[in-house]
Every structure is written in structure tokens, then in C-alpha cells.
Design a protein that fits this description.
Layout: H1 3-14, E1 22-24, H2 28-36, E2 41-45, H3 52-64, E3 67-71, H4 95-98, H5 104-112, H6 124-134, E4 138-142, H7 148-156, H8 164-173
Parallel strand pairs: 1-2, 2-3, 3-4
Helix pairs in contact: 2-3
Length: 174
């Protein structure tokens, strides 16, 4: 992202050709640069297991009134509870790079630590979406779904947040 791009986006908005603009980031530095460059929306990975970028960017975005789109809120399926220590993703599955077989046991152990969330949510997926929606800077979330049942399950989390005690417990864990 360069000043030239940010200037172009600003000019397009001023001329009425666009109403707003945003960027998708993978690193804190990219988010900070986007904020400095005038981005109005930032899309980033944010979930119970991957909070690092969000922990830096979300408070600033909230202060600056920048919209946040949270992607990968279910950690590519890990936070649905359907994967375990023996999970091996096929080589043509993007998750094989992000979550190699060698780390499956570690991921499964982290997910197992979240069982307490079932005390206030109907499923781990619902609790995970509620976690993301609990942050006041988050404008929307992209949970993804492959079928109608998954869409219905995702909708259950809409408009709900986790309890302060669960949020506090999660912050101490990860």
C-alpha cells in the first residue's frame, strides 16, 4: 500500500465515484498503514485462537471509527469442533499450509480448552462467533458456510456476545 494508492482512493471518494474504501490485511503493519492512509474499513483475521492482529488494530479502529470485517472467525473449521489431533488436510486444501499435520495436536488441545464456552452457547461455533462479535470495533463477520444448516447455525450467534467472565477467561488463555 502506497501513498499513491491512498491518494487515488481519496480522490475517487471526493469525486463521488466511490462512497468508501477499505483493505484486507495480514499484518499489523499493514493495518497501521491503512489507518494512516485513510482506510474506512479493514478486513482481518480475528478469532479466539488468532487475536494478535486484532488486539492491536481493533482498539485503534474503534477510536478512529473505522469499520472492521472479521474473517476466519472459526479458524478454518477448528472452532466448529469437527477437527481433532489426527486431522490432516489434503495438499490442495489451503488449510494444509496454515494448519500442517504436525500442529493438529496443538490446535486440538487449544480447542479443547474452550469447552467451558458450551455453558453459554449451543455450540463451539456459536461461542466463537459470539467472541468475535463481542468486540465493539467489529462491524461484521464472515463465517462462511457450505450448507443451509451451517448458515442457520451461524445466524444463531447474531446479535449475541459472550459474557464478561468468558471473555476474561479467553484473554488469559490466549
Amino acid at each position: 500500500m502506497t501513498d499513491e494508492i491512498f491518494g487515488l482512493m481519496s480522490d475517487l471518494k471526493k469525486s463521488g465515484k466511490i462512497r468508501g474504501w477499505g483493505v484486507s490485511i495480514a499484518k499489523v503493519e499493514e493495518g497501521m498503514r491503512a489507518i494512516e492512509g485513510g482506510a474506512e474499513v479493514i478486513q482481518l483475521v480475528y478469532n479466539v485462537l488468532e487475536q494478535d492482529i486484532g488486539n492491536v488494530i481493533l482498539p485503534i479502529a474503534q477510536k478512529e471509527n473505522i469499520g472492521i470485517i472479521a474473517r476466519v472467525p472459526l479458524a478454518s473449521g477448528w472452532l466448529t469442533g469437527k477437527y481433532g489431533a489426527g486431522t490432516v488436510f489434503q495438499k490442495d486444501d489451503h488449510r494444509s499450509v496454515r494448519y500442517p499435520a504436525a500442529s493438529a495436536g496443538e490446535m486440538a488441545a487449544k480447542v479443547a480448552e474452550l469447552d467451558f464456552l458450551l455453558d453459554e452457547a449451543g455450540s463451539l461455533a456459536e461461542a466463537s462467533l459470539r467472541f468475535v462479535l463481542s468486540h465493539p470495533a467489529v462491524s461484521t463477520v464472515i463465517p462462511g458456510a457450505k450448507n443451509r444448516d451451517q448458515v442457520r447455525q451461524n445466524v444463531v450467534a447474531s446479535g449475541k456476545v459472550l459474557s464478561e467472565s468468558s471473555l476474561s477467561r479467553i484473554s488469559k488463555m490466549f
